[in-house]
């Protein structure tokens, strides 16, 4: 069975996610998945080659381009999208508890969120930290 199309879809999804986030975290993984797709297409009988090539390609791209991306992030005027929502206000759309993630809207964006206390639907919150997928929020009193 040919698996090249799975690698291709993974690569496309990673590149699209990179374009949406603009963080350089997913770009190299998307390129690595594309390399794996090409190798899986050219050598369909070799099942170990694509994952090995994706792993090596991703690792090498990350290692050799880290100084470039670090310099880009330090350039004047660059705003890391991973930290753009910090200090912005939002609204709880799905309840949050210390043991369960909830959903918040910040501006026009919908995010998963965590908090140190229970927050109900409609509660106004302030974003105090942001990871790639989850916001940390506190209530606005």
TrEMBL record:
The question of whether Transmembrane is a record keyword is answered with yes
Question: Chief location of this protein?
Answer: membrane
Q: Which residues cross the membrane?
A: 12-41, 47-64
Q: Domain (NfeD-like C-terminal): give its ranges.
A: 83-139
Subcellular location(s) per record: Membrane
Q: Which GO terms describe its cellular component?
A: plasma membrane
SUPFAM superfamilies attached to this UniProt entry = NfeD domain-like
What is the protein name given in its UniProt record?
NfeD-like C-terminal domain-containing protein
Q: Recall the taxonomic lineage recorded for the source organism.
A: Bacteria, Pseudomonadati, Bacteroidota, Cytophagia, Cytophagales
């Amino acid at each position: 069975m040919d698996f090249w199309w799975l690698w291709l879809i993974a690569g496309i999804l990673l590149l699209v996610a990179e374009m949406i986030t603009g963080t350089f975290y997913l770009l190299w993984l998307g390129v690595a998945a594309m390399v794996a797709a090409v190798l899986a297409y050219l050598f369909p009988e070799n099942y170990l080659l694509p994952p090995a090539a994706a792993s090596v390609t991703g690792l090498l791209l990350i290692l050799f381009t880290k100084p470039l991306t670090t310099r880009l992030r330090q350039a004047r005027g660059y705003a890391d999208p991973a930290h753009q929502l910090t200090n912005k206000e939002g609204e709880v759309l799905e309840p949050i508890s210390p043991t369960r993630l909830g959903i918040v809207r910040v501006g026009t964006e919908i995010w998963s969120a965590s908090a140190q206390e229970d927050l109900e639907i409609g509660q106004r919150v302030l974003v105090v930290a942001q990871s790639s997928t989850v916001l940390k929020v506190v209530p606005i009193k």
